[in-house]
Sequence to fold (80 residues):
Amino acid sequence: MQMVLVVFGGLLVLCASALWVSLKPAGAHTAPEHELSVNEAHRTMQRHRGCSRDDCPRKEAAFRVLVESGRVRPDSGRLY
Ligand SMILES: [Zn+2]
Fold:
């Protein structure tokens, strides 16, 4: 019986930590589920100022939106 409790408790801890990882702000660096608006893209670029576009799909997506909307020229250096 005790064994079952230990296994169950272990599973619970695993689930809780998986949930925690998915809720952590680091999860916000994944690519957005929807196309960002220009406003959202601006905010995203500011929030992810410290990120490299190579490592942060969300910043990359925001940058693409700004380029496509003509706000940013890819060849004009790093604006953010
Ligand atoms: Zn980021």
About this structure: The pocket of zinc ion is lined by residues 29, 48, 51, 56, 58-59 (CB under 6 Å).
